[in-house]
Amino acid sequence: MSGKYDLVIVGGGISGASLLYTTAKFTDIDSIALIEKESELAAINSHSTNNSQTLHFGDIETNYTLEKAEEVKEGAELLAGYLENYDPDREMHSKRSKMVLGVGDEEVAELEERYEDDGFGDLFPKLRPIGREEIGELEPKVVEGRDPTKEMLALQTPDGYVVDYGETTKSFIEEASEEANVDVYTGTTVKDITPTLDGYTIETSHGRFDSDATVVAAGSHSLQMAKELGYGQDKVLLPIAGSFFLADDLLNGKVYTLQMKKLPFAAVHGDADVHDASVTRFGPTAKLVPTLERGRISTVKDFFDVFGLNAAAFLSYANILSDRILLPYVLKNLVYDLPAAGPKAFLPHVQKVVPSVELEDIERAKGYGGVRPQIVDTKNKSLDMGEAKIVGEDIIFNITPSPGASTCLKNAMRDTHTLIDFLGDDYEFDEAAFREDTIGNFPRAE
Ligand SMILES: Cc1cc2nc3c(=O)[nH]c(=O)nc-3n(C[C@H](O)[C@H](O)[C@H](O)COP(=O)(O)OP(=O)(O)OC[C@H]3O[C@@H](n4cnc5c(N)ncnc54)[C@H](O)[C@@H]3O)c2cc1C
C-alpha cells in the first residue's frame, strides 16, 4: 500500500469518519485516504459499548454553561439530522425520553433556576420541567421506593437520541466510499509523520503515503503525534477510564443526575441500551489510568510520551489533583473496578437514579468502557473542558474526550473550512449541501 493523496485522515473513529464523509461528499478535494490501525473501524472510543451512547445537546448536562450548551447544540443537531436522514429504520440510533433529575430542595431549586433564569428553557424549546407524577409515568422505577417527602423535579425532553457511534462511523464511511476519490485502509498503523516541501510523508505499517494536507483524528494518540512534530507542547493528558454497570430493564429512557460543576466528565447516569431497551446501563465511572487505550498495557509508553515527564506536567497534575472536589472523586473511582468491592461502592450512584435497586441487580459490564483523553493546560495548570484542536501547517490534530462524538460533524465542518484554506482557491466546500444532508433534517419544535 502507498499513494499520494490531497488529504490523509489518520484514525477511523467517528471523528475521522465524519470528516471523510464531509470532505468526500461536499468538497472537490481530488483524493482522500483514511488510515486506521485496527482491523475494524470504530474499535476504540467510538465503539458502542465503550461510551455512554448519549447525543449531548447541552440541555440536561448541568456542568455546561449556557455558552457551552449553545456550542454543543448545533453539533448535536447536525448529527441528529444525519441520523434522521440516513437511519429511518433506527439501526444506528433510538429516540427516547431523557431527563435530568433533581431530588431534594437544593437540587430542585438549581434545576428551576437553570430552566427559568439561566436561559436553558429558552434555548431548548422542547425541554420542560416535570414533577413527581409525570416522572413516574415516564420512568416508574425512578419514583418507586423514593422517600415521598422529598421534592422531585426533572427537566425532560423527547429529544433523547441514543446513538451507536460505531455504526454511525461505518455509515459515514459507506456514504463517503460511494465517491470515486476515497480509499480506506484498515489494519494499517501510522508510525511516523514527516513534513515535506509540499505536505507530509506518512510512514505506516503497510507502506508510505504522501499528502498535501493531513488531519490526525487518532483520539489520545493525536496529542502524541502532535508533540512528535513540535506542536501542543503546552498540553498533557489526564486519561480517565470509564466503566459501566448493567441491570435488567430499569429505565425506559435516559436519566441523568446533576453534575459537579468542576468535573469535565459526565456524572453517573442510567439509560436503556441503544439496541436492546431491556438492558439498562449505568455509568460511566472515572478512573485515572496511565494508558491511552482501555486495557492496552502497550499504550502506557504512549501515555509517558504525551506526559513528557517534565516539571510543568508534574506541577499541573499536582495542582489539578490537589483540588478538594476532584481528589476525593478520583480516589473513590479507583474502587469501582474491583471485583467485589466495586459494585458495592457503586450501588449508591445507581440508587440515586433507581432507589429500589439492590446489589444483586447490577453487574460490571465486562469489556465495556473507554479512556477519555481529558486535556491539561500546562501553562495554566488547569483541566480543560471538552475537546481540543491544534492547527499546524497543513495539519490538524483533534483530541476528543466527551462530547467529541456528539460534535463530530460540527468539528468536521470546521476542519473542512481549514482544509480548504490549506489547499487553496481551487477547492470549494458546499456547506449549504452539507447542512441540507444533516441539520436540515433535524425536527424542530413547532
Ligand atoms: C466512557 C466514555 C463515555 C463517553 N460518552 C460519550 C457520550 O455519551 N457522548 C459523546 O458524544 N461522547 C462520549 N464520549 C466521547 C466519545 O467516545 C469520543 O469523543 C469519540 O468516540 C471520539 O472519536 P474519535 O474518532 O476522535 O476517537 P476514537 O474513536 O478513539 O478513534 C480514534 C481512532 O484512531 C485510531 N488510531 C490511533 N492511533 C493510530 C495510528 N497510529 N494509526 C492509525 N490509526 C490510529 C484508533 O485505532 C481509533 O480507531 C465518551 C468517552 C468515554 C471514554
Task: Break the fold down into its secondary structure elements and pairings.
Elements: E1 3-10, H1 14-26, E2 32-35, H2 66-86, E3 93-103, H3 105-116, H4 120-123, E4 128-130, H5 132-138, H6 140-143, E5 152-163, H7 165-177, E6 182-185, E7 190-196, E8 199-204, E9 207-216, H8 221-228, E10 235-242, E11 245-248, E12 254-257, E13 269-272, E14 279-283, E15 287-288, H9 300-307, H10 311-321, H11 326-333, H12 341-353, E16 363-364, E17 370-377, E18 382-383, E19 388-391, E20 395-399, H13 408-423, H14 431-437
Parallel strand pairs: 1-2, 1-9, 2-6, 3-12, 9-20
Antiparallel strand pairs: 3-5, 4-5, 7-8, 8-9, 10-15, 10-17, 11-14, 11-16, 12-13, 13-14, 17-18, 19-20
Helix pairs in contact: 1-7, 1-13, 2-13, 8-9
Flavin-adenine dinucleotide binds next to helix 1 and strand 17.
What does it look like?
It comes from Natronorubrum sulfidifaciens JCM 14089. Belongs to the L2HGDH family. Its cofactor is FAD. InterPro entries: FAD-dep_OxRdtase, FAD/NAD-bd_sf. This is Malate dehydrogenase. This protein is an alpha+beta fold. Among the domains are: 1-53 and 164-231 and 392-445, FAD/NAD(P)-binding domain; 238-249 and 268-383, no CATH class. Helix content is 33%, strand content 25%. It is built from 14 helices and 20 strands. The chain has helices at 14-26, 66-86, 105-116, 120-123, 132-138, 140-143, 165-177, 221-228, 300-307, 311-321, 326-333, 341-353, 408-423, 431-437; strands at residues 3-10, 32-35, 93-103, 128-130, 152-163, 182-185, 190-196, 199-204, 207-216, 235-242, 245-248, 254-257, 269-272, 279-283, 287-288, 363-364, 370-377, 382-383, 388-391, 395-399. The strands form three sheets. Strands 1, 2, 6, 7, 8, 9, 19 and 20 form an eight-stranded mixed β-sheet that branches. Strand 19 (388-391) and strand 20 form a beta hairpin. Helix 1 (14-26) packs parallel to helix 7, helix 1 packs across helix 13 and helix 8 packs across helix 9. The longest helix has 21 residues, at 66-86. The chain is globular, with a radius of gyration of 22 Å. The termini are far apart. Bound molecules: flavin-adenine dinucleotide. The site of flavin-adenine dinucleotide has 42 residues, from helix 1 and strand 17.
